[in-house]
Amino acid sequence: MPTLTIDDKVITVPTGATVLQAIRQAGARLQTLCYLEGLPPYGACRLCMVELTAPVSQVIAACAYPAAEGLVVDTRGPRATAVRNLMLEFLLARCPDAEAIRSLANEAGVASTRFTTDGRPDELCVLCGLCVRVCRDAVGAAAIGFTGRGAGRAVTAPFHVQAEACIGCGACAAVCPTGAVRIEDAGGQRVLHTWNTTVPLKRCPSCGQPYAPEPMAFLRELIATGGPAWGVCPACRRKEAAAQLKMARDTGRG
Amino acid sequence: MRIQTLSDLNTLRAEGESSLYPARMKITVGTATCGRAAGAETVYEALRQRLELRGLDAALARTGCIGACHQEPLVDVRLPGGGRVLYAQMTRPRARALVDALARGGLPRDEPWAVIDAEEALADDRMVHFTRPEALAGATAYQDLPFYSRQRKIVLRNCGFIDPASLEEYVARGGYQGLARALARTPQEVVDEVTRAGLRGRGGGGFPTGRKWQAARDAAGTPKYVICNGDEGDPGAYMDRTVLESDPHSVIEGLLIGAYAVGAHEGYAYVRDEYPLAVERLAGAIAQAEERGLLGEDILGSGFGFALKIVRGAGAFVCGEETAMIASIEGGLGEPRPKPPYPATAGLWGKPTLINNVKTWATAPVILARGADWYAGLGAPGNTGTVVFSLVGQVARTGLVEVPLGMRLGDLLREVGGGTGTGKAIKAVQTGGPSGGCLPAQLFDLPIRYEDLKAAGSMMGSGGMVVLDENACMVDVARYFLDFTAAESCGKCTACREGTRHLLEILTRITHDEGMPEDLALLEEVSLGVQAGSLCGLGQTAPNPVLSTLRYFRDEYEAHVREHRCPAGVCPIKVEGH
């Protein structure tokens, strides 16, 4: 249980915590893009840069730095603030249309960017890697990944075609901070536009409505508390549950 | 025959000596990549055919790079009992004439470049002296050549002196004696020896090697691994390639010693795939070492076992960064991860891992063979030993040089390198590749030490040294290096991916006469942000070429953005337009 200082506040955090977790525990506000509780730290967006003033003077990424005994952290130091603001300017130039970035920049007092946008003004992806990591580390599908390097880096399905490993769960879109992952359900299919991938939806045997990606059917076997109602869509499941409840009540009264 | 004892090693040594110094005439061709690029293989073939045609009883052999790449292809002739007589810039017609002259019982009419009167078997602390033929009394001795007279070859001790494909010749010059001594001591004693020697990481960072070994030795967790970083990729740098091509066993022996010291039984040599000859020669050396029992189980009867595999890089510069290299070996994307944890505690497959550069590994055997005190006596306090540079660019004597640390930068460039050789003055030298900086002529009194170079805004780096004369535009030089790092950035972190792109863009507009006076302050601001904000060493050091040229050659930047003029006349600026 290391004890450390965050902006003059002394706190004790659980063993294994990161500096970012300590900062949040101390109640200080620090922006992040590539961090998600539950996934291993990645250290890519560089928005959580803070100053370490002891034991060494260093600008560090809070999300990936172990909260060790005796650290003294300054989240508002000028060096780290300059780096964070520069990153926001970089991201504004990269994704001028991204509402989430504009709002983060606004909050930090970065009004505009001095840098040019490279060819794709409609770019929304900030390359935080959350989609790739949630798909690989949490879902276990690893359907998408990085291609290219430097400014040419992008997240794609392998070879830009239908991702065979995609189960259509939509976790990628759910974790994306900027809305860069476009998914829609249409015509009995889930279309993951960003990944050039289409996944068929299972139709509810009861009402005929498409309701869940077919590759996710394996979940039924994983969930021990299944029953006949698990084979239908959530709406029909609710109806059926309500009917069963009514029947039980009626029977009880009789 | 399997080598199990020191006396087995001595049997091998005798075999090596008879092939190094045979009782018959011997002709040797330098066939590292530098020699090959200059036509060494065609010269070798011409020699082979002519020897056959003349029926001359002579051994024809290959060796690695002796460092003087500006004189390649280098061919030498050794008469029985004599030293090697080196002939420079050999051509096929001259090679044939050389054989013809030897067949007539004389020496070639060619002026020799140098004569080697004595060879130093460094690991043995032994000199082998030869008798110089009467007819060559006036020829320059190898050690008197200005290129070599101030060099001290430790890492390069065998390069250009042995056949890289011959384990026997390596052993004949004291090879595997360091390993034998290491195995006779406790692992901790081996670490202590390296610590006391004061060796620092020759990949460029200069971290004390002994401390790195100690950390890997002390780290909890098994198995442990050792890795050789051979992913050299700085423009103009080819030190590691040359060592792997010219003396692969020195690296294997170093890895064996390090593995024994930290308790590892498996190791990987990560070599970039653009170095096919290095891969081929290292693979050949590994196979020999396995066959002789110097790799495998129970090495030299010690009970210690070690296996070594080669992993070839796939063309990403960032894989020279240790965490990216580990990811690449594991089969993942070659991208860095945040440190800590450091590889010494959580490296390959999450296990304690010791990573050193090719040259660091190649130094370890000599430290063990000759002792820490001997090594610590070389170079300067805190900067012991020697450093290898590839001297390239506008320099008269390009090549691979090894000098004691602490030598003045100007002495290296002028005395060893011979200046520009064109009458023009040296304007600057770029050390440390894309991670380093440009140092101007007024700093040439600077001693070559890790801290001095860093304080001056550059770094030791892995050893690339690009010499620039007055024809170079320093803004364009900075643009060149940013073009490199922007293309080699893996793109994982915002600071490096976006920052190098913007730095490149600003530099490009300055060199295309579209710059603005306020660009200079912007360059500085972005550079400092990328330095402080990047995830790994690539991004953290990528702005150095910009910052160092801004620091020392600001007037050139000013001329571009204020007067719309490129002082060196390099940048495409239309003077008429203004």
Structural features, described:
The complex is a heterodimer of chains A (254) and B (578). Chain A is 29% helix and 18% strand. Chain A contains 7 helices and 11 strands. Chain A has a 5-stranded mixed β-sheet, with helices on both faces. In chain A, helix 2 runs antiparallel to helix 3. The radius of gyration of chain A is 23 Å and the shape is globular. The mean pLDDT of chain A is 93. With 578 residues, chain B is an alpha/beta fold. Helices cover 41% and strands 16% of the residues of chain B. Chain B is built from 23 helices and 18 strands. In chain B, a hairpin with a 2-residue loop joins strand 12 and strand 13. The chains are: A alpha+beta (254), B alpha/beta (578). At the A-B interface, helix 2 of A face helix 18, helix 19 and helix 20 of B.
Give helix % range of chain A.
Answer: 25-40%
Total domains of chain A: 3
Based on CA atoms alone, the radius of gyration of chain B comes out at 24 Å
Low-confidence regions of chain B: none
